[in-house]
Amino acid sequence: MQSENVNIDELFRSEPCADDEQISNQPHISYSAEVARRFWRTPSVIVFSILLALIIACCFLVPAFSPRPITGIVDEAINHKPSAEYWLGADKFGHDFFTKMWKGGQTSFKVGFVSAVLQTLIGVIVGAISGYAGGKVDQFLMRTVDVFISIPYMVIVLVVRLIMGSSIYTIIFALVVTGWLNTARLVRGQILQLKTEDYVLAAQSTGVSTASILFRHLIPNTLGVVIVSFTLAIPQAMFSEAFLSFIGMGSGDVSWGSLIRTGMEVRFRHPWQLIAPSIVLALTMLCIQLLGDSLRDALDPKLRK
Amino acid sequence: MLKYVVRRVLIAAITVFVLATVTFFLLKLVPNGLFADPNITAEARAKLFAHYGLDKPVFEQYLMYLKNMAHLDLGESIANPGRKITTMILDPATGNGLPQSMRLGLCALIFSVPMGIALGTMSGLNRGKALDKAVIGLSLVGISVPSFVVATISVTVFGNMLGWLPTTGFSTPKEMILPTICLSLSPIATIARLMRTSLVEVENADYIKTARSKGLKKRRIMLRHQVRNALLPVVTILGPITASLLCGTFVVESIFNIKGLGGYYVESISNRDYGLVMGLTVLFGTFLVAANLVVDILYGLIDPRIRLKR
After folding, report:
1. Contacts of B292 in chain A (CB under 8 A)
2. pTM of the prediction?
3. Alpha-carbon distance A63 to B121, whole Å?
4. pLDDT band for position A2 (50/70/90)?
5. Where are the domains of chain A?
Protein backbone atom coordinates (compact mmCIF):
# COMPACT_ATOMS: atom_id res chain seq x y z
CA MET A 1 0.00 0.00 0.00
CA GLN A 2 2.69 2.37 1.13
CA SER A 3 4.78 1.93 -1.99
CA GLU A 4 1.74 2.37 -4.22
CA ASN A 5 0.99 5.68 -2.56
CA VAL A 6 4.48 6.87 -3.19
CA ASN A 7 4.12 5.86 -6.80
CA ILE A 8 0.97 7.87 -7.21
CA ASP A 9 2.63 10.91 -5.66
CA GLU A 10 5.48 10.45 -8.04
CA LEU A 11 3.08 10.26 -10.91
CA PHE A 12 1.40 13.53 -10.07
CA ARG A 13 4.52 15.43 -9.23
CA SER A 14 5.06 17.73 -12.10
CA GLU A 15 8.47 18.68 -13.24
CA PRO A 16 9.01 22.44 -13.23
CA CYS A 17 9.14 23.55 -16.81
CA ALA A 18 10.01 26.80 -18.52
CA ASP A 19 6.39 27.57 -19.39
CA ASP A 20 5.31 27.71 -15.76
CA GLU A 21 7.45 30.68 -15.01
CA GLN A 22 6.27 32.48 -18.12
CA ILE A 23 2.63 31.94 -17.27
CA SER A 24 2.95 33.11 -13.68
CA ASN A 25 4.81 36.20 -14.80
CA GLN A 26 2.05 37.25 -17.15
CA PRO A 27 -0.24 39.87 -15.64
CA HIS A 28 -3.53 38.31 -14.64
CA ILE A 29 -6.44 39.72 -16.69
CA SER A 30 -9.85 39.41 -15.10
CA TYR A 31 -12.95 38.85 -17.20
CA SER A 32 -14.23 42.39 -16.69
CA ALA A 33 -10.85 43.89 -17.58
CA GLU A 34 -10.80 41.77 -20.71
CA VAL A 35 -14.31 42.93 -21.62
CA ALA A 36 -13.33 46.56 -21.02
CA ARG A 37 -10.23 46.13 -23.13
CA ARG A 38 -12.21 44.68 -26.01
CA PHE A 39 -14.92 47.32 -25.65
CA TRP A 40 -12.60 50.32 -25.80
CA ARG A 41 -10.47 48.83 -28.57
CA THR A 42 -12.48 50.40 -31.42
CA PRO A 43 -12.04 54.13 -31.98
CA SER A 44 -15.70 54.58 -32.91
CA VAL A 45 -16.70 53.44 -29.41
CA ILE A 46 -14.69 56.28 -27.89
CA VAL A 47 -16.17 58.83 -30.30
CA PHE A 48 -19.74 57.70 -29.69
CA SER A 49 -19.25 57.52 -25.91
CA ILE A 50 -18.05 61.11 -25.87
CA LEU A 51 -20.94 62.17 -28.10
CA LEU A 52 -23.48 60.43 -25.90
CA ALA A 53 -21.94 61.90 -22.75
CA LEU A 54 -22.14 65.32 -24.36
CA ILE A 55 -25.80 64.87 -25.28
CA ILE A 56 -26.69 63.71 -21.77
CA ALA A 57 -24.74 66.59 -20.23
CA CYS A 58 -26.57 69.08 -22.46
CA CYS A 59 -29.95 67.59 -21.54
CA PHE A 60 -29.38 68.11 -17.85
CA LEU A 61 -27.15 71.20 -17.81
CA VAL A 62 -28.55 73.47 -20.52
CA PRO A 63 -32.10 73.73 -19.08
CA ALA A 64 -30.67 74.18 -15.59
CA PHE A 65 -28.41 77.08 -16.50
CA SER A 66 -30.24 78.67 -19.40
CA PRO A 67 -31.30 82.26 -18.62
CA ARG A 68 -34.26 82.03 -21.02
CA PRO A 69 -37.51 80.71 -19.54
CA ILE A 70 -39.33 77.80 -21.15
CA THR A 71 -42.50 78.03 -19.08
CA GLY A 72 -45.35 80.49 -19.31
CA ILE A 73 -45.61 82.79 -22.30
CA VAL A 74 -42.71 85.06 -23.20
CA ASP A 75 -44.36 87.74 -25.34
CA GLU A 76 -41.31 89.47 -26.73
CA ALA A 77 -39.75 86.24 -28.07
CA ILE A 78 -42.75 84.62 -29.79
CA ASN A 79 -41.63 82.96 -33.04
CA HIS A 80 -38.24 84.63 -32.75
CA LYS A 81 -35.91 83.84 -35.66
CA PRO A 82 -32.65 82.04 -34.90
CA SER A 83 -30.16 84.63 -33.63
CA ALA A 84 -27.15 85.02 -31.39
CA GLU A 85 -29.44 85.01 -28.37
CA TYR A 86 -31.91 82.36 -29.55
CA TRP A 87 -29.69 79.83 -31.34
CA LEU A 88 -32.54 77.82 -32.77
CA GLY A 89 -35.13 80.56 -32.57
CA ALA A 90 -38.13 80.49 -30.27
CA ASP A 91 -41.45 78.70 -30.60
CA LYS A 92 -44.99 80.02 -30.52
CA PHE A 93 -44.85 80.44 -26.73
CA GLY A 94 -41.64 82.46 -26.98
CA HIS A 95 -39.61 79.65 -25.43
CA ASP A 96 -35.99 79.40 -26.49
CA PHE A 97 -35.96 76.31 -28.68
CA PHE A 98 -32.39 75.35 -27.89
CA THR A 99 -33.17 75.14 -24.17
CA LYS A 100 -36.50 73.45 -24.76
CA MET A 101 -34.97 70.80 -26.96
CA TRP A 102 -32.55 69.70 -24.23
CA LYS A 103 -35.34 69.79 -21.69
CA GLY A 104 -37.19 67.38 -23.96
CA GLY A 105 -34.18 65.08 -23.87
CA GLN A 106 -34.50 64.84 -20.09
CA THR A 107 -37.87 63.15 -20.47
CA SER A 108 -36.44 60.70 -22.99
CA PHE A 109 -33.50 59.74 -20.81
CA LYS A 110 -35.55 59.50 -17.64
CA VAL A 111 -38.11 57.21 -19.25
CA GLY A 112 -35.44 55.19 -21.00
CA PHE A 113 -33.23 54.67 -17.99
CA VAL A 114 -35.81 54.16 -15.26
CA SER A 115 -37.94 51.75 -17.22
CA ALA A 116 -34.90 49.80 -18.41
CA VAL A 117 -33.66 49.42 -14.82
CA LEU A 118 -37.06 48.33 -13.51
CA GLN A 119 -37.87 45.93 -16.30
CA THR A 120 -34.44 44.32 -16.12
CA LEU A 121 -34.79 43.92 -12.36
CA ILE A 122 -38.20 42.28 -12.61
CA GLY A 123 -37.12 40.19 -15.56
CA VAL A 124 -34.05 38.88 -13.76
CA ILE A 125 -35.92 37.99 -10.59
CA VAL A 126 -38.83 36.28 -12.32
CA GLY A 127 -36.57 34.54 -14.82
CA ALA A 128 -34.23 33.30 -12.10
CA ILE A 129 -37.04 32.00 -9.90
CA SER A 130 -38.72 30.34 -12.85
CA GLY A 131 -35.55 28.69 -14.09
CA TYR A 132 -34.29 27.58 -10.70
CA ALA A 133 -37.59 26.37 -9.26
CA GLY A 134 -38.61 24.47 -12.37
CA GLY A 135 -41.74 22.31 -12.38
CA LYS A 136 -45.11 23.92 -11.76
CA VAL A 137 -43.72 27.34 -10.84
CA ASP A 138 -41.75 27.45 -14.07
CA GLN A 139 -44.74 26.29 -16.11
CA PHE A 140 -46.99 28.92 -14.56
CA LEU A 141 -44.55 31.80 -14.93
CA MET A 142 -43.56 30.96 -18.46
CA ARG A 143 -47.15 30.50 -19.64
CA THR A 144 -47.91 33.89 -18.13
CA VAL A 145 -45.01 35.33 -20.09
CA ASP A 146 -46.29 33.59 -23.24
CA VAL A 147 -49.69 35.20 -22.80
CA PHE A 148 -48.44 38.70 -22.01
CA ILE A 149 -45.78 38.78 -24.69
CA SER A 150 -48.43 38.79 -27.42
CA ILE A 151 -50.17 41.86 -26.07
CA PRO A 152 -48.85 44.92 -27.87
CA TYR A 153 -47.24 47.41 -25.47
CA MET A 154 -49.10 50.24 -27.12
CA VAL A 155 -52.42 48.79 -26.10
CA ILE A 156 -51.27 48.55 -22.49
CA VAL A 157 -49.88 52.09 -22.55
CA LEU A 158 -53.11 53.51 -23.87
CA VAL A 159 -55.34 51.58 -21.48
CA VAL A 160 -53.10 52.39 -18.50
CA ARG A 161 -53.16 56.00 -19.63
CA LEU A 162 -56.94 56.07 -19.39
CA ILE A 163 -56.79 54.88 -15.80
CA MET A 164 -53.73 56.64 -14.42
CA GLY A 165 -53.93 59.81 -16.48
CA SER A 166 -51.08 61.09 -18.57
CA SER A 167 -47.78 61.40 -16.78
CA ILE A 168 -44.26 60.16 -17.13
CA TYR A 169 -45.03 57.45 -14.56
CA THR A 170 -47.85 56.06 -16.68
CA ILE A 171 -45.45 55.57 -19.54
CA ILE A 172 -42.75 54.05 -17.37
CA PHE A 173 -45.29 51.74 -15.75
CA ALA A 174 -46.64 50.55 -19.07
CA LEU A 175 -43.17 50.04 -20.53
CA VAL A 176 -42.08 48.07 -17.48
CA VAL A 177 -45.21 45.91 -17.56
CA THR A 178 -44.50 44.90 -21.14
CA GLY A 179 -40.71 45.06 -21.10
CA TRP A 180 -39.66 42.53 -18.47
CA LEU A 181 -40.95 39.54 -20.40
CA ASN A 182 -38.01 39.14 -22.75
CA THR A 183 -35.43 39.52 -20.01
CA ALA A 184 -37.27 36.93 -17.95
CA ARG A 185 -37.17 34.44 -20.82
CA LEU A 186 -33.48 35.05 -21.44
CA VAL A 187 -32.48 34.76 -17.80
CA ARG A 188 -34.57 31.63 -17.33
CA GLY A 189 -32.80 29.99 -20.25
CA GLN A 190 -29.43 30.84 -18.73
CA ILE A 191 -30.37 29.63 -15.28
CA LEU A 192 -31.63 26.34 -16.69
CA GLN A 193 -28.17 25.74 -18.12
CA LEU A 194 -26.28 27.00 -15.09
CA LYS A 195 -28.16 25.15 -12.37
CA THR A 196 -26.69 21.81 -13.39
CA GLU A 197 -23.15 23.11 -12.93
CA ASP A 198 -20.95 21.55 -10.27
CA TYR A 199 -20.56 24.70 -8.20
CA VAL A 200 -24.31 24.92 -7.76
CA LEU A 201 -24.42 21.29 -6.69
CA ALA A 202 -21.59 22.00 -4.28
CA ALA A 203 -23.43 24.97 -2.83
CA GLN A 204 -26.63 22.96 -2.50
CA SER A 205 -24.92 20.06 -0.77
CA THR A 206 -23.18 22.33 1.73
CA GLY A 207 -26.53 23.78 2.73
CA VAL A 208 -26.34 27.22 1.17
CA SER A 209 -29.77 28.83 1.17
CA THR A 210 -31.77 29.01 -2.06
CA ALA A 211 -31.77 32.80 -2.05
CA SER A 212 -28.03 32.81 -1.62
CA ILE A 213 -27.53 30.33 -4.46
CA LEU A 214 -29.71 32.48 -6.69
CA PHE A 215 -28.22 35.83 -5.86
CA ARG A 216 -24.60 34.88 -5.13
CA HIS A 217 -24.00 32.10 -7.63
CA LEU A 218 -26.55 32.01 -10.43
CA ILE A 219 -27.59 35.58 -11.17
CA PRO A 220 -24.04 36.97 -11.28
CA ASN A 221 -23.26 34.39 -13.95
CA THR A 222 -26.09 35.63 -16.15
CA LEU A 223 -24.85 39.22 -16.01
CA GLY A 224 -23.55 39.20 -19.57
CA VAL A 225 -26.98 38.45 -20.98
CA VAL A 226 -28.60 40.85 -18.54
CA ILE A 227 -26.33 43.75 -19.44
CA VAL A 228 -26.99 43.22 -23.12
CA SER A 229 -30.74 43.14 -22.68
CA PHE A 230 -30.47 46.22 -20.45
CA THR A 231 -28.60 48.20 -23.09
CA LEU A 232 -31.23 47.15 -25.62
CA ALA A 233 -34.05 48.13 -23.29
CA ILE A 234 -32.91 51.74 -22.93
CA PRO A 235 -33.21 52.76 -26.59
CA GLN A 236 -36.37 50.71 -26.91
CA ALA A 237 -38.01 52.59 -24.08
CA MET A 238 -36.79 55.92 -25.46
CA PHE A 239 -38.15 54.97 -28.84
CA SER A 240 -41.53 54.09 -27.39
CA GLU A 241 -41.68 57.30 -25.41
CA ALA A 242 -40.86 59.40 -28.48
CA PHE A 243 -43.38 57.48 -30.53
CA LEU A 244 -46.15 57.93 -27.96
CA SER A 245 -45.41 61.64 -27.58
CA PHE A 246 -45.47 61.95 -31.34
CA ILE A 247 -48.96 60.51 -31.68
CA GLY A 248 -50.07 62.73 -28.82
CA MET A 249 -50.31 59.97 -26.23
CA GLY A 250 -47.18 60.90 -24.33
CA SER A 251 -46.55 62.10 -20.80
CA GLY A 252 -47.56 65.69 -21.46
CA ASP A 253 -44.03 66.87 -20.60
CA VAL A 254 -41.84 68.36 -23.30
CA SER A 255 -40.13 65.53 -25.10
CA TRP A 256 -38.34 64.94 -28.37
CA GLY A 257 -41.35 63.13 -29.77
CA SER A 258 -43.75 65.98 -29.00
CA LEU A 259 -41.28 68.59 -30.26
CA ILE A 260 -40.97 66.75 -33.56
CA ARG A 261 -44.75 66.64 -33.78
CA THR A 262 -45.08 70.41 -33.37
CA GLY A 263 -42.02 70.87 -35.52
CA MET A 264 -43.82 69.04 -38.28
CA GLU A 265 -46.72 71.43 -38.10
CA VAL A 266 -44.52 74.51 -38.45
CA ARG A 267 -41.90 72.94 -40.72
CA PHE A 268 -42.23 75.48 -43.54
CA ARG A 269 -41.85 78.59 -41.42
CA HIS A 270 -39.50 77.25 -38.75
CA PRO A 271 -37.69 74.25 -40.24
CA TRP A 272 -35.20 74.14 -37.36
CA GLN A 273 -37.92 73.19 -34.94
CA LEU A 274 -38.34 69.97 -36.90
CA ILE A 275 -34.75 69.35 -37.93
CA ALA A 276 -32.94 69.98 -34.63
CA PRO A 277 -34.88 67.58 -32.38
CA SER A 278 -34.96 64.97 -35.16
CA ILE A 279 -31.19 65.06 -35.47
CA VAL A 280 -30.59 64.93 -31.73
CA LEU A 281 -33.01 62.04 -31.26
CA ALA A 282 -31.53 60.07 -34.15
CA LEU A 283 -27.97 60.73 -32.96
CA THR A 284 -28.79 59.61 -29.43
CA MET A 285 -30.38 56.42 -30.72
CA LEU A 286 -27.41 55.79 -32.98
CA CYS A 287 -24.95 56.25 -30.10
CA ILE A 288 -26.80 53.95 -27.71
CA GLN A 289 -27.40 51.32 -30.35
CA LEU A 290 -23.76 51.33 -31.41
CA LEU A 291 -22.40 51.23 -27.87
CA GLY A 292 -24.84 48.44 -27.03
CA ASP A 293 -23.63 46.46 -30.03
CA SER A 294 -20.00 46.94 -29.09
CA LEU A 295 -20.70 45.96 -25.51
CA ARG A 296 -22.47 42.80 -26.67
CA ASP A 297 -19.53 41.89 -28.88
CA ALA A 298 -17.13 42.52 -26.02
CA LEU A 299 -19.17 40.42 -23.59
CA ASP A 300 -19.89 37.52 -25.88
CA PRO A 301 -16.89 35.23 -26.18
CA LYS A 302 -18.57 33.43 -29.07
CA LEU A 303 -18.27 36.51 -31.23
CA ARG A 304 -14.57 36.95 -30.46
CA LYS A 305 -12.74 37.14 -33.69
CA MET B 1 -46.53 18.16 -34.96
CA LEU B 2 -50.27 18.05 -34.29
CA LYS B 3 -49.62 18.21 -30.56
CA TYR B 4 -47.39 21.20 -31.07
CA VAL B 5 -49.99 23.04 -33.18
CA VAL B 6 -52.81 22.28 -30.74
CA ARG B 7 -50.70 23.55 -27.89
CA ARG B 8 -49.89 26.78 -29.71
CA VAL B 9 -53.51 27.36 -30.70
CA LEU B 10 -54.58 26.82 -27.10
CA ILE B 11 -52.09 29.34 -25.78
CA ALA B 12 -53.23 31.80 -28.43
CA ALA B 13 -56.88 31.37 -27.49
CA ILE B 14 -56.10 31.85 -23.80
CA THR B 15 -54.12 34.96 -24.64
CA VAL B 16 -57.01 36.55 -26.49
CA PHE B 17 -59.35 35.67 -23.66
CA VAL B 18 -57.03 37.13 -21.01
CA LEU B 19 -56.58 40.26 -23.08
CA ALA B 20 -60.34 40.71 -23.49
CA THR B 21 -60.93 40.15 -19.79
CA VAL B 22 -58.13 42.38 -18.60
CA THR B 23 -59.19 45.18 -20.94
CA PHE B 24 -62.79 44.93 -19.77
CA PHE B 25 -62.01 45.12 -16.08
CA LEU B 26 -59.29 47.74 -16.52
CA LEU B 27 -61.72 50.00 -18.31
CA LYS B 28 -64.19 49.52 -15.47
CA LEU B 29 -61.53 50.93 -13.18
CA VAL B 30 -61.21 54.17 -15.09
CA PRO B 31 -61.95 57.06 -12.76
CA ASN B 32 -64.76 59.54 -13.51
CA GLY B 33 -66.36 56.71 -15.50
CA LEU B 34 -68.56 57.25 -18.43
CA PHE B 35 -70.63 60.33 -19.11
CA ALA B 36 -68.89 62.27 -16.38
CA ASP B 37 -69.92 65.49 -18.10
CA PRO B 38 -71.62 67.60 -15.38
CA ASN B 39 -74.04 69.01 -17.96
CA ILE B 40 -75.77 65.66 -18.25
CA THR B 41 -78.69 65.39 -15.86
CA ALA B 42 -79.01 62.41 -13.59
CA GLU B 43 -82.09 61.29 -15.48
CA ALA B 44 -80.37 61.46 -18.86
CA ARG B 45 -77.39 59.63 -17.46
CA ALA B 46 -79.57 56.84 -16.16
CA LYS B 47 -81.13 56.53 -19.60
CA LEU B 48 -77.74 56.43 -21.28
CA PHE B 49 -76.53 53.82 -18.82
CA ALA B 50 -79.58 51.70 -19.56
CA HIS B 51 -79.06 52.15 -23.28
CA TYR B 52 -75.50 50.85 -23.15
CA GLY B 53 -76.37 48.19 -20.57
CA LEU B 54 -74.17 49.83 -17.95
CA ASP B 55 -76.79 49.72 -15.19
CA LYS B 56 -76.40 45.97 -14.76
CA PRO B 57 -73.93 44.38 -12.32
CA VAL B 58 -70.36 44.34 -13.59
CA PHE B 59 -70.17 40.59 -13.86
CA GLU B 60 -73.34 40.44 -15.94
CA GLN B 61 -71.93 43.12 -18.19
CA TYR B 62 -68.78 41.06 -18.55
CA LEU B 63 -70.72 37.98 -19.63
CA MET B 64 -72.71 40.09 -22.10
CA TYR B 65 -69.50 41.52 -23.45
CA LEU B 66 -67.94 38.11 -23.94
CA LYS B 67 -71.10 36.82 -25.61
CA ASN B 68 -71.25 39.77 -27.98
CA MET B 69 -67.58 39.53 -28.72
CA ALA B 70 -67.98 35.88 -29.67
CA HIS B 71 -70.64 37.00 -32.14
CA LEU B 72 -68.28 39.68 -33.45
CA ASP B 73 -70.67 42.33 -32.19
CA LEU B 74 -68.73 45.10 -30.51
CA GLY B 75 -71.73 47.25 -29.67
CA GLU B 76 -72.33 50.88 -30.36
CA SER B 77 -69.83 53.70 -30.30
CA ILE B 78 -70.37 56.14 -27.45
CA ALA B 79 -68.78 59.14 -29.14
CA ASN B 80 -70.63 58.52 -32.38
CA PRO B 81 -74.12 57.51 -31.18
CA GLY B 82 -75.97 55.12 -33.39
CA ARG B 83 -72.88 53.85 -35.20
CA LYS B 84 -71.99 50.21 -34.85
CA ILE B 85 -68.35 49.71 -33.90
CA THR B 86 -67.94 46.84 -36.32
CA THR B 87 -69.05 48.98 -39.24
CA MET B 88 -66.72 51.75 -38.06
CA ILE B 89 -63.80 49.36 -38.03
CA LEU B 90 -64.58 47.65 -41.31
CA ASP B 91 -66.35 50.51 -43.04
CA PRO B 92 -67.29 48.81 -46.32
CA ALA B 93 -68.80 52.01 -47.68
CA THR B 94 -65.64 54.14 -47.65
CA GLY B 95 -62.97 51.46 -47.39
CA ASN B 96 -61.45 53.28 -44.40
CA GLY B 97 -60.44 51.67 -41.14
CA LEU B 98 -59.22 48.11 -41.05
CA PRO B 99 -58.92 47.51 -44.83
CA GLN B 100 -56.81 50.63 -45.18
CA SER B 101 -54.48 49.69 -42.31
CA MET B 102 -54.22 46.12 -43.54
CA ARG B 103 -53.19 47.25 -46.99
CA LEU B 104 -50.55 49.56 -45.60
CA GLY B 105 -49.16 46.89 -43.28
CA LEU B 106 -49.18 44.21 -45.96
CA CYS B 107 -47.44 46.45 -48.48
CA ALA B 108 -44.71 47.17 -45.96
CA LEU B 109 -44.37 43.49 -45.01
CA ILE B 110 -44.20 42.34 -48.62
CA PHE B 111 -41.65 45.00 -49.41
CA SER B 112 -39.47 44.71 -46.33
CA VAL B 113 -39.07 40.95 -45.78
CA PRO B 114 -37.47 40.03 -49.15
CA MET B 115 -35.57 43.29 -49.18
CA GLY B 116 -34.14 42.72 -45.70
CA ILE B 117 -33.23 39.11 -46.45
CA ALA B 118 -31.55 40.09 -49.71
CA LEU B 119 -29.53 42.90 -48.14
CA GLY B 120 -28.53 40.76 -45.17
CA THR B 121 -27.46 37.90 -47.43
CA MET B 122 -25.42 40.16 -49.66
CA SER B 123 -23.71 41.66 -46.67
CA GLY B 124 -23.14 38.37 -44.83
CA LEU B 125 -21.66 36.63 -47.84
CA ASN B 126 -19.33 39.54 -48.62
CA ARG B 127 -18.07 40.10 -45.12
CA GLY B 128 -15.59 42.94 -44.67
CA LYS B 129 -16.08 44.29 -48.17
CA ALA B 130 -17.44 47.72 -49.04
CA LEU B 131 -20.94 46.37 -49.73
CA ASP B 132 -21.06 44.76 -46.29
CA LYS B 133 -19.99 47.97 -44.60
CA ALA B 134 -22.58 49.96 -46.53
CA VAL B 135 -25.36 47.59 -45.48
CA ILE B 136 -24.23 47.62 -41.84
CA GLY B 137 -24.13 51.41 -41.83
CA LEU B 138 -27.51 51.74 -43.48
CA SER B 139 -29.16 49.22 -41.20
CA LEU B 140 -27.77 50.95 -38.14
CA VAL B 141 -29.31 54.18 -39.36
CA GLY B 142 -32.56 52.35 -40.19
CA ILE B 143 -32.77 51.03 -36.64
CA SER B 144 -31.73 54.28 -34.98
CA VAL B 145 -33.95 56.75 -36.77
CA PRO B 146 -37.58 56.44 -35.67
CA SER B 147 -40.10 55.91 -38.45
CA PHE B 148 -41.87 59.16 -37.61
CA VAL B 149 -38.71 61.14 -38.22
CA VAL B 150 -38.15 59.40 -41.55
CA ALA B 151 -41.78 59.93 -42.51
CA THR B 152 -41.91 63.61 -41.57
CA ILE B 153 -38.70 64.42 -43.35
CA SER B 154 -39.51 62.43 -46.49
CA VAL B 155 -42.96 64.02 -46.70
CA THR B 156 -41.35 67.43 -46.50
CA VAL B 157 -38.57 66.71 -48.98
CA PHE B 158 -40.18 64.46 -51.61
CA GLY B 159 -43.72 65.68 -51.20
CA ASN B 160 -43.70 69.36 -50.34
CA MET B 161 -40.37 70.59 -51.61
CA LEU B 162 -39.66 68.46 -54.68
CA GLY B 163 -43.28 67.64 -55.40
CA TRP B 164 -42.44 64.17 -56.74
CA LEU B 165 -44.92 62.19 -54.73
CA PRO B 166 -48.31 62.89 -53.16
CA THR B 167 -48.26 63.51 -49.42
CA THR B 168 -51.68 62.19 -48.43
CA GLY B 169 -53.82 59.15 -48.99
CA PHE B 170 -53.13 55.53 -49.80
CA SER B 171 -55.24 54.52 -52.79
CA THR B 172 -53.30 55.03 -56.01
CA PRO B 173 -49.94 53.27 -56.54
CA LYS B 174 -48.18 56.61 -56.55
CA GLU B 175 -49.65 57.47 -53.16
CA MET B 176 -48.55 54.11 -51.78
CA ILE B 177 -44.83 54.58 -52.44
CA LEU B 178 -43.82 56.95 -49.65
CA PRO B 179 -45.86 55.45 -46.79
CA THR B 180 -44.70 51.94 -47.66
CA ILE B 181 -41.05 52.94 -47.76
CA CYS B 182 -41.26 54.92 -44.53
CA LEU B 183 -42.91 52.03 -42.74
CA SER B 184 -40.48 49.47 -44.18
CA LEU B 185 -37.15 51.02 -43.30
CA SER B 186 -36.84 49.80 -39.76
CA PRO B 187 -38.04 46.22 -40.49
CA ILE B 188 -35.64 46.05 -43.43
CA ALA B 189 -32.79 47.14 -41.16
CA THR B 190 -33.74 44.66 -38.44
CA ILE B 191 -34.07 41.73 -40.84
CA ALA B 192 -30.86 42.58 -42.70
CA ARG B 193 -28.87 42.73 -39.47
CA LEU B 194 -30.28 39.49 -38.16
CA MET B 195 -29.74 37.74 -41.48
CA ARG B 196 -26.15 38.87 -41.56
CA THR B 197 -25.39 37.76 -37.99
CA SER B 198 -27.00 34.41 -38.51
CA LEU B 199 -25.13 33.81 -41.76
CA VAL B 200 -21.88 34.48 -39.94
CA GLU B 201 -22.86 32.11 -37.14
CA VAL B 202 -23.79 29.35 -39.56
CA GLU B 203 -20.55 29.73 -41.50
CA ASN B 204 -18.54 27.67 -39.03
CA ALA B 205 -21.13 24.95 -38.50
CA ASP B 206 -20.07 21.35 -38.95
CA TYR B 207 -22.43 20.67 -41.79
CA ILE B 208 -20.87 23.49 -43.79
CA LYS B 209 -17.45 21.97 -43.18
CA THR B 210 -18.80 18.59 -44.27
CA ALA B 211 -20.27 20.12 -47.40
CA ARG B 212 -16.98 21.80 -48.16
CA SER B 213 -14.96 18.67 -47.60
CA LYS B 214 -17.31 16.76 -49.89
CA GLY B 215 -16.16 19.18 -52.53
CA LEU B 216 -19.52 20.78 -53.20
CA LYS B 217 -19.50 23.92 -55.26
CA LYS B 218 -19.20 27.12 -53.25
CA ARG B 219 -22.39 28.54 -54.69
CA ARG B 220 -24.35 25.45 -53.83
CA ILE B 221 -23.07 25.46 -50.25
CA MET B 222 -24.06 29.09 -49.90
CA LEU B 223 -27.58 28.74 -51.18
CA ARG B 224 -28.54 25.24 -50.06
CA HIS B 225 -26.78 25.06 -46.73
CA GLN B 226 -25.78 28.44 -45.43
CA VAL B 227 -28.62 30.74 -46.46
CA ARG B 228 -31.32 28.17 -45.78
CA ASN B 229 -30.20 27.55 -42.23
CA ALA B 230 -29.55 31.20 -41.61
CA LEU B 231 -33.16 31.98 -42.49
CA LEU B 232 -34.44 30.20 -39.37
CA PRO B 233 -33.93 33.05 -36.87
CA VAL B 234 -35.40 35.46 -39.39
CA VAL B 235 -38.67 33.55 -39.31
CA THR B 236 -38.91 33.95 -35.54
CA ILE B 237 -38.55 37.68 -35.75
CA LEU B 238 -41.51 38.05 -38.12
CA GLY B 239 -43.87 38.07 -35.14
CA PRO B 240 -42.24 41.05 -33.41
CA ILE B 241 -41.86 42.75 -36.78
CA THR B 242 -45.57 42.51 -37.37
CA ALA B 243 -46.07 44.09 -33.97
CA SER B 244 -43.75 46.96 -34.76
CA LEU B 245 -45.44 47.46 -38.13
CA LEU B 246 -48.69 47.80 -36.24
CA CYS B 247 -47.26 50.64 -34.16
CA GLY B 248 -45.63 52.09 -37.24
CA THR B 249 -48.95 52.27 -39.06
CA PHE B 250 -50.19 54.63 -36.33
CA VAL B 251 -47.50 57.14 -37.13
CA VAL B 252 -47.49 56.72 -40.88
CA GLU B 253 -51.27 56.92 -41.02
CA SER B 254 -51.28 60.12 -39.03
CA ILE B 255 -48.52 61.75 -41.09
CA PHE B 256 -49.93 60.77 -44.49
CA ASN B 257 -53.54 61.37 -43.50
CA ILE B 258 -54.52 57.79 -44.16
CA LYS B 259 -57.88 56.94 -42.63
CA GLY B 260 -56.86 53.71 -40.96
CA LEU B 261 -57.40 52.27 -37.50
CA GLY B 262 -54.59 54.17 -35.81
CA GLY B 263 -56.50 57.42 -35.95
CA TYR B 264 -59.60 55.77 -34.54
CA TYR B 265 -57.66 54.31 -31.68
CA VAL B 266 -56.04 57.55 -30.60
CA GLU B 267 -59.34 59.36 -31.05
CA SER B 268 -61.25 56.76 -29.05
CA ILE B 269 -58.81 57.16 -26.17
CA SER B 270 -59.15 60.94 -26.16
CA ASN B 271 -62.96 60.70 -26.46
CA ARG B 272 -63.15 57.98 -23.83
CA ASP B 273 -65.16 55.94 -26.27
CA TYR B 274 -64.87 52.73 -24.27
CA GLY B 275 -66.64 50.41 -26.66
CA LEU B 276 -64.30 51.40 -29.44
CA VAL B 277 -61.24 51.19 -27.18
CA MET B 278 -62.20 47.69 -26.10
CA GLY B 279 -63.01 46.58 -29.62
CA LEU B 280 -59.80 47.90 -31.10
CA THR B 281 -57.66 46.63 -28.23
CA VAL B 282 -59.01 43.13 -28.63
CA LEU B 283 -58.71 43.39 -32.40
CA PHE B 284 -55.06 44.46 -32.26
CA GLY B 285 -54.28 41.83 -29.66
CA THR B 286 -55.98 39.08 -31.62
CA PHE B 287 -54.18 40.14 -34.74
CA LEU B 288 -50.81 39.98 -33.05
CA VAL B 289 -51.57 36.68 -31.38
CA ALA B 290 -52.58 35.28 -34.75
CA ALA B 291 -49.39 36.57 -36.33
CA ASN B 292 -47.30 34.98 -33.59
CA LEU B 293 -49.25 31.75 -33.95
CA VAL B 294 -48.55 31.58 -37.67
CA VAL B 295 -44.87 32.27 -37.04
CA ASP B 296 -44.68 29.60 -34.32
CA ILE B 297 -46.32 26.99 -36.53
CA LEU B 298 -44.12 27.95 -39.48
CA TYR B 299 -41.09 27.62 -37.30
CA GLY B 300 -42.18 24.24 -36.06
CA LEU B 301 -42.64 23.13 -39.66
CA ILE B 302 -39.22 24.36 -40.74
CA ASP B 303 -37.22 23.26 -37.74
CA PRO B 304 -38.14 19.87 -36.24
CA ARG B 305 -36.01 20.58 -33.16
CA ILE B 306 -38.48 23.22 -32.03
CA ARG B 307 -41.62 21.11 -32.12
CA LEU B 308 -39.93 18.14 -30.49
CA LYS B 309 -38.38 20.12 -27.66
CA ARG B 310 -41.51 20.67 -25.63
Report:
1. 149-150
2. 0.79
3. 46
4. very low
5. 34-303
